[in-house]
Amino acid sequence: MTSVTHRFIETNSIKMHIAEQGQGKLVILCHGFPESWYSWRHQLSALAEAGFHAVAPDQRGYGQTDRPEAIEAYHVFQLVGDIVGLVNALGEEQAFIVGHDWGALVAWYCALLRPDMFRALTLLSVPYLPRTWDDIRPTEAMKLMAGEQEFYQLYFQEPGKAEAELESDVRTSIRAFLYSASGDPPPSKRWRFLFSKSEKLLDTCSVPDKLPTWLTEQDIDFFTSEFERTGFRGGLNWYRNMDRIWELNPFLSGAKIRQPTLFVAGEADAVITMYREAFDTLEQNVPNLRQKVLLPGAGHWVQQERPVEVNKLLIEFLADHQIDK
User: Fold this and answer.
1) Residues 6+ apart with CB under 8 A from 166
2) Three-state DSSP class for 175?
3) 75 labelled catalytic
4) Per the residue annotation, which of 58, 66, 101, 269 is the catalytic one?
5) CA distances from 107 to 21, 150, 192, 206 (A)
6) Is 225 helix (H, G, I), strand (E, B) or coil?
7) Is there a contact between 26 and 94 (Cβ–Cβ < 8 Å)?
8) Does the bond joining 159 to the residue before it have cis omega, within 30 degrees of 0?
9) Could you tell me the sign of the dihedral formed by the alpha carbons of 315, 319, 321, 322, in that order?
10) Catalytic residue among 300, 320, 321, 324
11) Cα–Cα dist 260/318, whole Å
């Protein structure tokens, strides 16, 4: 079997770094925050061995991919354009798409906007959050939900604020995020998405004395070196476009995802608590949902924490929903 290879492609006016492995039908793997192509390290080889061409890009603002300066350059329509251009640059007309965290949002927008290209999708951690005609501006909804507290996505809105905190000690930030949002810490040490306005973001996390078994010091080394080089601004700018997405997407109000879909998350993932209603109503908004799985003991980084289970579910799903080659 071939090993993981790396190259750059041109897409949507940016240079994008991709990691890829295998031959066969194309599977695009979209990462979340604060991650990179590396978060799919366990899936690349498994998909390749199963007969797929697995491609994990560093998305816009991350890793070795270009990091435009303007905040508006990270609007979701640009992010979708990057992935559409990637499929085209690889010489394909169709692809499976898999997304985790923010990558899940990219995946479902790809499915909604280009159903001719993306014929089946897998969402990890974040359930589909449909737009409705009654929706209010996202940051206003966050303020109502948070009340007297702070919500992490609101904390991210001010340019430079979260960057300064996270970049003061990148290694500690990475260790804290990956551990605290996983299924490993006791409840008292898990990441909190709501916190006191007197606290900082990293006060919501805990740093482990010893890493969990799914995470090595070499993994921490990789993520640390990437974010020490790039900073966190690119990834944080995705959050700073949430109101802009809302302003431009009323045409998607009530839209359902019609493609065959797999959803997988960790039972201890705080995102499931955060978006419980969307999780509970997923079958209504994704009529062709084939499976909805919560993995016991797993947290937010589900494909890293539980690669064997995720790979099995993913490969079985992809094998059942063939696309044109």
Assistant:
1) 34, 173, 201, 202, 227, 232
2) helix
3) no
4) 101
5) 20, 28, 26, 30
6) helix
7) yes
8) no
9) positive
10) 300
11) 10
- Which two three-digit tokens encode residue 139? 């940051």
pLDDT by position in tens, the chain (length 325): 679 999 999 999 999 999 999 999 999 999 999 999 999 999 999 999 999 999 999 999 999 999 999 999 999 999 999 999 999 999 999 999 999 999 999 999 999 999 999 999 999 999 999 999 999 999 999 999 999 999 999 999 999 999 999 999 999 999 999 999 999 999 999 999 999 999 999 999 999 999 999 999 999 999 999 999 999 999 999 999 999 999 999 999 999 999 999 999 999 999 999 999 999 999 999 999 999 999 999 999 999 999 999 999 999 999 987 655 4
Cis ω before 34 (30° cut-off from 0): yes
Angle between helix axes 41-49 and 307-320 (nearest 10 degrees) is 40
Residue 7: other Cβ atoms inside 10 A: 9
Is residue 101 annotated as a catalytic residue, yes or no? yes
Q: The tokens of 126 are what?
A: 């974040």
Give the integer Cα–Cα distance in Å for 19 and 27: 12
The per-residue DSSP string of 229-284 comes to: HH-SHHHHHHHTTHHHHHHH-GGGTT----S-EEEEEETT-HHHHHTHHHHHTHHH
Alpha-carbon distances, residue 192 vs 74, 101, 176, 304 (angstroms)? 26, 16, 12, 20
Q: Whole-structure pTM over 0.85, yes or no?
A: yes
Contact in structure between 281 and 191 (CB atoms under 8 Å): no
Per-residue tokens: 260: 């065959």
58 in Cβ contact with 18 (< 8 Å): yes
Amino acid at 317: F
- Amino acid code (one letter) for 163: E
